[in-house]
Amino acid sequence: MKRDSRLSSVLHALLHMAERGEPMTSETLAVCMCTNPVVVRRTMGLLRDAGLVASARGPSGGWQIVADLNSVTLRDLYDALGEPTVFAIGNRHEAPQCLVEQAVNAALDDAFADAEALLLDRLGKITLARLSADFNRRYAAHRTRA
Amino acid sequence: MKRDSRLSSVLHALLHMAERGEPMTSETLAVCMCTNPVVVRRTMGLLRDAGLVASARGPSGGWQIVADLNSVTLRDLYDALGEPTVFAIGNRHEAPQCLVEQAVNAALDDAFADAEALLLDRLGKITLARLSADFNRRYAAHRTRA
DNA sequence: TAATTCGTAATATTAAAAGTTACATGAAAC
DNA sequence: GTTTCATGTAACTTTTAATATTACGAATTA
C-alpha cells in the first residue's frame, strides 16, 4: 500500500527553508523534495492556509516560513494537510447492518482510536525548532567526521 | 487513501464460521463478505497457513475454524495476513542521504513505532471468543427489541 | 513592458489492490 | 468409476487514488 509522504515531505521543505533565510521557489523546493513544482504549490498552499508559510509571486518571490519554529508542531502540519487518514487498515463499511460486523468494528475502532490519539499526541510535542536543532547536531557531527 | 479491510473482513468471516458449526464454501463467504470467491480463497489461505482454519475440497467441503477461539487474538490474524502496513502515512525514502531528511525521519519513526506497538498490543488482547460473546450480546439485545 | 513566479484547472500516468476468468486438482456421493 | 462439488492458483483485467504533467492566467518586480 502506497503511503502518504506529504508530512515527511513538507517537513523536509520547511527545514530547508529554515536554514535559508530567503524565499525558495516551487521549482527549487520541487528538486529537493523529488517532486514537481505544481505539487509543491498545492501542498505548501495548505500550509499557507494554516498560516505557517507565506507565498509571493513574481521575481524574488517564492515560499517562506512565517510561523515561530518554537510553536509549530508536527501536529500542526498534520492538521494543515487536512488531517490525512492515519491508518492503512480499516473497516469495510462505516454503517453496517450486520450484528457480526458491528461487534467487529467496535473492537477494532477502539484500538485504532487509542493508537491514533497516542500518535497525534506525540506529534504535538515535536516542534520544528527541535527538529532544526536535531539537524544542526547531525550537521556538526558530519563536519567533524569529514 | 484506500484502506486494507482484510482484517475486518476475515474477522467477519470467522465469526460467521464460529456461529455455524459446519464448513462454509468460498462462495458463501464471498457473499457475506461482499467480495469474490477467489479473493476469499486467497485470504483464507493465509489463515490456513497460520493454522487458524482448515479447508476441504469436494462436496461438503469448505472452510472451518480449527483454532481455539479463546487463544486466537486479532494480533494473530494480523500476523497471519502478513503483518500488513499499519500506517497510511510514511517517510519518503528509506535510506536518505540528506541530513535534513535523517532528522525528520528519526523524529517521525519514533512516534509511529510507539503508536504501532500500542495498537498491536491492543490487538493481542482481543480474542475471537470475546468478539463472539460480544456478538451474542448484541444479538440477544436485538431479539429483545424485536 | 519583460521576466519571473505563484494559482489552478484539466488531463495523464502510475501503481496497488481487488476482481475476474479459466482451468487443474482433489474429495465425496452415488 | 463417474459425476459433482469445491478448493488451488495462474493469468489477466478493472478500479481507484495518488501523483505528475501541461497549460495558461494572474500578480509582482524591475
From TrEMBL, chains A, B:
Cited Pfam families: Rrf2
MF annotations from Gene Ontology: DNA-binding transcription factor activity
GO CC terms of this entry: cytosol
PANTHER family cross-referenced by the UniProt entry: HTH-TYPE TRANSCRIPTIONAL REGULATOR YWGB-RELATED, WINGED HELIX-TURN-HELIX TRANSCRIPTIONAL REGULATOR, RRF2 FAMILY
Protein name: BadM/Rrf2 family transcriptional regulator
Lineage: Bacteria, Pseudomonadati, Pseudomonadota, Alphaproteobacteria, Hyphomicrobiales
